[in-house]
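pls design
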């Protein structure tokens, strides 16, 4: 049974349609890269999966033990976010806010979860550092740790290496690959086709108006060869 199944989706804003009749599924442990041109609807799709937007038509269903609130999200960073005046520990802990309910404080289990996430991402030594003082790669590690505190079954990433230098980019890809090996299902928007072929198990290529391809990486490689 699929963790996530999208059937005949039509997506857009108001009367503007950006994707029509899109269908694909994601199984537990998959690493799906979503690629396509700017404006093709990749981020719109991700926001619809997160239920931040409603589909104009079609359905999105979760299964195999995955609940809608067990999907975490790492969006693209804005300049304002990069200058956020909080410590690394505070930002990572904030990923537990949805667990707190009306409690105005974090309990021991949530603090332990944040510590475990920081250890997994190799940023424990930065816990007291101000976020705005970190390098781009360290900031992304911090936000990734925060996302792990929010949910630990499926992780959605929107261009997670944007603005990073080559070394930090490689580190981020390695971290995401390890999280996937640890059992977290990955759905990542990327402009980097080479990275998709190297790391992903499946690729969804969104063309004008909808999917031009969905399948495993070997099939996508053959698809690219046929159109070049």
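designed seq:
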């Amino acid at each position: 049974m699929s963790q996530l199944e999208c059937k005949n989706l039509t997506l857009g804003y108001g009367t503007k349609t950006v994707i029509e009749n899109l269908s694909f599924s994601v199984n537990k442990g998959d690493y799906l890269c979503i690629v396509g041109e700017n404006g093709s609807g990749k981020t719109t799709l991700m926001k619809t999966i997160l239920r931040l937007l409603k589909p104009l038509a079609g359905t999105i269903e979760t299964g195999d033990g995955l609940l809608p609130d067990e999907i975490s999200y790492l969006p693209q960073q804005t300049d304002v976010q990069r200058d956020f005046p909080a410590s690394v520990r505070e930002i990572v802990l904030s990923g537990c806010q949805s667990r707190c309910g009306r409690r105005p404080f974090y309990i021991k289990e949530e603090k332990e979860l944040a510590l475990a996430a920081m250890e997994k991402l190799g940023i424990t030594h930065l816990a007291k550092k101000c976020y705005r003082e970190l390098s781009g790669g360290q900031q992304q590690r911090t936000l990734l740790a925060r996302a792990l505190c929010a949910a630990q079954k499926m992780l959605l990433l929107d261009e997670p290496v944007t603005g990073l230098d080559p070394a930090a980019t490689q580190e981020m890809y390695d971290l995401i690959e390890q999280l996937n090996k640890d059992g977290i299902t990955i759905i990542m928007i990327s402009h980097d086709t080479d990275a998709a072929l190297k790391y992903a198990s499946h690729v969804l290529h969104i063309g004008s108006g909808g999917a031009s391809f969905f399948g495993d990486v070997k099939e996508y490689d053959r698809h690219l060869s046929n159109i070049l």
